[in-house]
């Protein structure tokens, strides 16, 4: 069962950890400066949105916001805090959660805050969705949608419609899913949310693919990808690229599908989107199955299972379970097949995933037939066909019809076999008319051609403008040609003198710039001491102030304190300018075990290396520890560059060896490849900026790592050393040395 990627949003989505951390830090700073209870409650409510609804930290913050809101006279603030706290209790299955949410809705109704009510309904639906209670989720989404429409709340209409489209698509209600998806797209356009417009077009492409309308699917997916690139949303683009691969796979073009899958897999690996990696590996396994390579297919599925188990992705384990089960059916390992298929069946029923159910029942039917349980086999195959037909999964229905034809043919039931064969042919003919594969391929070609033509037209316009400017210049030259000839001689005489003056002026400007930077540093540092003294005195003054003093004095003291803090911040910015101009690296040094970091880096590149039949060998003992004081983020980027270079410049069947040893108070890391090697002459300039080597990547790979000049900068900043040993034809070894910690 190939897996389409759906973009499902939740009220408290975790997001990228780095962005989340920055948001939390920013809100905590704002909270420390807030004085009024209403403001503090509002910031705390925003802060709860940065945590998952199953996170105890977020629950604690929501409780604090609720307690503060109770002391205010703001109905709106109290209602918002009830929503925040109620959602946490509601997600935990506590009855108090629903009581709090209903209380919030009544307060919103009293204040006529209909948009807030619509958002509350949408949030409740998201919790039901996470708990696979789809009927309740749809109920609250419809309430949110109707209320949003009543008050022309376009963002609310868009979000509710998009979520309804997703749920109906999972359940196989493609007509409803398409209706809501179109409605969501139109309202996202109304509020100019281009990223969400891209998601809606992607959703529509998925639905059209389920219906067998491949030309429409590709058209919408290409539009979605173009918008995703414009808004620089990499994760949405990965989803779209995967779905393009699924469509081409359904059009019986596995090689085109594999190209899309591998492109998306590379991007998801770089940005560490584990959920997408799991889906893509699952999809790649089906391409291998079509090629008859069950070993590669099974390996990809096991990797999928490993990612799913490690990252706790609900409902995602169904796809590799079904895939592994179907492989075991094909290899007559029926006990193993029975285990995995029934496990996928149970999960598919719980998650209400009709695509999985269709595939599982088909594979179960084939398994039962091999076990000689023909009644159960026929019942399972008919169940698969019924689900696929009801959900308008035309491609899956076609596959099941072919299985039914073969089943009856083997049983000698000619009339039933011919019946299913006729339906198979009818559906095939129907699919040919509706999907129009030639049109779909033409749309894709036209898209690429249009992009190329836009580039050519832009270049042509630039050339025309340049040509017009040259012609205008030539006309002016013709008018003043005689004068120009006279001036040439004078210019030649003055050029030498001008050159000397310019060089002197450049030296003077350079000296003045250095003086300016020095002066800025001196002034900033000299100002820090008195400012810090003022701040210290202010703390003493505020600390000894008695309760009998006037309130105004505390106010003025606070203003003085804030002013000195502002001056300190300004001075810090002055010093930061100097750091930026000198290209200093901001480090977060800590004691790290290099052994674990090396294992993680090697694991990240196992799949890309396997594509070229290259083995990454870790010769060190994984149980040994090698500690150094480094910045782990920069160290991982350095290793990513060295390993990816080894893969790019090595031929198929070669090996990359990674080792680490303790030598004389240093930890020495080595990365050795069996590539073409680097000449002695090129090694002299290896770490210079913009240095290009004679050797070329063996499979026309594109560079995704850091330049070696930047790697050198990172290593030097961490007080380490990097050097290279290589001979032409004998491979290359890079060494990293860091002090033991």
What does this 3D model show about the protein?
- By secondary structure, the protein is mostly helical.
- It is built from 29 helices and 7 strands.
- Among the domains are: 16-112, Serine Threonine Protein Phosphatase 5, Tetratricopeptide repeat (Alpha Horseshoe), CATH 1.25.40; 444-479; 483-584, Orthogonal Bundle (Helix Hairpins); 590-739, 2-Layer Sandwich (Heat Shock Protein 90), CATH 3.30.565.
- Helix content is 73%, strand content 6%.
- The strands form 2 sheets. A 5-stranded mixed β-sheet has the order 2-4-5-7-6.
- The longest helix is centred in the last third of the chain and has 64 residues, at 481-544.
- Residues 1-18 and 576-581 have low confidence and may be disordered.
């Amino acid at each position: 069962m190939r897996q389409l990627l759906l973009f499902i949003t939740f009220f408290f989505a975790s997001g990228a950890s780095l962005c989340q951390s920055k948001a939390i830090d920013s809100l905590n700073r704002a909270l420390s400066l807030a004085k009024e209870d209403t403001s503090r409650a509002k910031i705390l409510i925003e802060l709860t949105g940065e945590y998952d609804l199953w996170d105890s930290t977020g629950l604690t913050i929501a409780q604090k916001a609720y307690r503060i809101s109770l002391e205010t006279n703001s109905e709106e603030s109290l209602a918002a805090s009830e929503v925040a706290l109620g959602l946490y209790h509601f997600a935990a299955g506590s009855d108090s959660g629903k009581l709090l949410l209903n209380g919030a809705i009544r307060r919103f109704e009293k204040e006529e805050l209909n948009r807030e009510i619509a958002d509350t309904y949408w949030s409740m639906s998201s919790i039901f969705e996470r708990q696979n209670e789809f009927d309740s989720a749809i109920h609250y989404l419809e309430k949110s949608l109707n209320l949003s429409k009543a008050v022309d709340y376009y963002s609310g209409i868009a979000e509710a419609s998009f979520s309804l489209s997703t749920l109906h698509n999972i359940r196989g209600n493609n007509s409803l899913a398409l209706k809501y998806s179109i409605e969501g797209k139109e309202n996202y356009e109304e509020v100019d949310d281009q990223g969400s417009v891209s998601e809606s077009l992607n959703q529509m492409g998925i639905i059209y693919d389920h219906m067998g309308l491949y030309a429409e699917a590709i058209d919408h997916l290409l539009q979605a990808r173009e918008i995703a690139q414009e808004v620089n949303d990499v994760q949405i683009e990965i989803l779209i690229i995967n779905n393009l691969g699924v469509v081409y796979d359904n059009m019986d073009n596995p090689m085109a599908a594999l190209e899309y899958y591998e492109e998306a897999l590379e991007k998801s690996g770089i940005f560490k989107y584990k959920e997408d990696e799991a889906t893509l590996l699952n999809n790649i396994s089906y391409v291998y199955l079509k090629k008859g390579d069950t070993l590669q297919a099974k390996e990809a599925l096991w990797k999928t299972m490993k990612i799913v188990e490690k990252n706790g992705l609900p409902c995602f384990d169904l796809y590799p379970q079904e895939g592994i089960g179907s492989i075991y059916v094909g290899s007559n390992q029926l006990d193993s097949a029975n285990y995995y298929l029934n496990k996928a069946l149970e999960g598919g029923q719980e998650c209400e995933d009709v695509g999985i159910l269709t595939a599982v029942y088909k594979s179960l039917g084939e398994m039962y037939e091999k076990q000689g349980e023909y009644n159960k086999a026929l019942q399972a195959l008919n169940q698969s066909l019924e689900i696929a037909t009801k959900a308008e999964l035309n491609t899956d229905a076609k596959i099941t019809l072919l299985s039914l034809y073969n089943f009856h043919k083997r049983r000698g039931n000619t009339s039933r076999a011919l019946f299913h064969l006729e339906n198979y042919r009818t559906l095939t003919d129907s699919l040919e008319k509706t999907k129009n594969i030639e049109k779909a391929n033409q749309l894709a070609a036209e898209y690429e051609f249009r992009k190329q033509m836009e580039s050519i037209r832009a270049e042509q316009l630039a050339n025309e403008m340049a040509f017009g400017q040259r012609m205008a210049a030539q006309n002016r030259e013709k008018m003043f040609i005689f004068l120009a000839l006279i001036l040439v001689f004078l210019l030649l005489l003055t050029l030498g003198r001008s050159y000397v003056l310019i060089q002197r002026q450049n030296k003077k400007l350079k000296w003045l710039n250095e003086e300016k930077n020095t002066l800025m540093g001196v002034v900033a540092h000299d100002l820090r001491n008195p400012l810090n003294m003022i701040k210290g005195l202010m703390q003493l003054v505020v600390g000894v102030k008695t309760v009998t003093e006037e309130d105004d004095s505390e106010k003025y003291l606070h203003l003085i304190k804030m002013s000195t803090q502002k001056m300190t911040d300004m001075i810090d910015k002055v010093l930061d300018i100097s750091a930026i101009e000198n290209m200093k690296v901001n480090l977060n040094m800590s004691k790290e075990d290099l052994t674990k970091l090396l294992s993680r880096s090697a694991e990240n590149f196992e799949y890309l290396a396997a594509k070229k039949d290259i083995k990454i060998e870790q010769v060190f003992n994984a149980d040994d520890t090698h500690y150094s004081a480094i910045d782990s983020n920069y160290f991982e980027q350095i290793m990513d560059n060295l390993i990816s270079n080894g893969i790019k410049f090595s031929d198929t069947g070669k090996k990359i060896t990674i080792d680490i040893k303790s030598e004389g108070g240093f930890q020495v890391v080595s990365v050795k490849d069996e590539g073409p090697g680097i000449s002695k002459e090129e090694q002299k300039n290896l770490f210079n900026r913009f240095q290009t080597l004679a050797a070329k990547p063996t499979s026309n790979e594109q560079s995704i790592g850091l330049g070696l000049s930047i790697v050198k900068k990172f290593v030097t900043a961490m007080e380490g050393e990097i050097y290279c040993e290589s001979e032409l034809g004998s491979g290359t070894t890079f060494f990293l040395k860091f002090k033991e910690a």
